Amino acid sequence: MFRLTANDLTVGYDKVPIIQNLSVTIPDKQITSIIGSNGCGKSTLLKAITRIIPYEDGSVLLDGSQIATMKTKDVAKKMAILPQSPDSASGLTVGELVSYGRFPHQSGLGRLKQADIDVIHWAMEVTAIIGFKHRTVDELSGGQRQRVWIAMALAQETDIILLDEPTTYLDMAHQLDILQLLEQLNKQEGRTIIMVLHDINQAARFSDHLLAMRSGQIIQTGSPGEVLTKEMLRNVYEIDGEIGTDPRTGKPICITYDLIKQKEQHNNEKKIHSAI
User: Fold this and answer.
1) Which of 9, 136, 144, 163 is 20 to 30 Å from 242 by CA-CA measure?
2) Where does it localize (predicted)?
């Protein structure tokens, strides 16, 4: 089942196209990760899908409706977005920031009803930040702040959550913490998760579906086993890698790699030494 689709999408900055004639369907109730080298259009695609930036041509459909013509509140009731660098929450408490997620459901007066308060409390509980409710966001660690932003997205009560590099600037432990939380939300709550990730091993481990991009195009889609291959690494990243199987998860994992140019140079040097 597909609730979110893009058809013949063209997006650019200052009349320079980044994405051209791209079409994609996002599987419902699965975790989809977008992977690819820097500048290939991953974040641009996510921003176009969520209306953060306009697209020049094509269409994005959300539940069959053109997202470009939908009211902002209607989109926000169905889809939450966590950008790569969220706006500063200076001075706000955790509870106040999470409550902003209820904006799409509020009337003109903007007052929180008991139903809103219950959802906010639930969002903080499920993300394990309820103990920080009265602390300011500024005083939290990077991983804790990321959980707060995810809680705000959950408070929107959307079935679809999109995240642009949610593990950026986090150490290994906090990265794992955030990705396990997203996995839990998918498995237990049935949320559709779409995220941009740089770490291909993390993407393979936590995703049901991968989109591999190069030069503004999706060149391969499918399960981690179908996408994370030596050929994909060569085509997308220009690296020569070895793929194994993670003994804990059974998912594919890149266990070692070299730049193709470096490997070719190394092989040439070996030939020279052998000839001497």
Assistant:
1) 163
2) Cell membrane
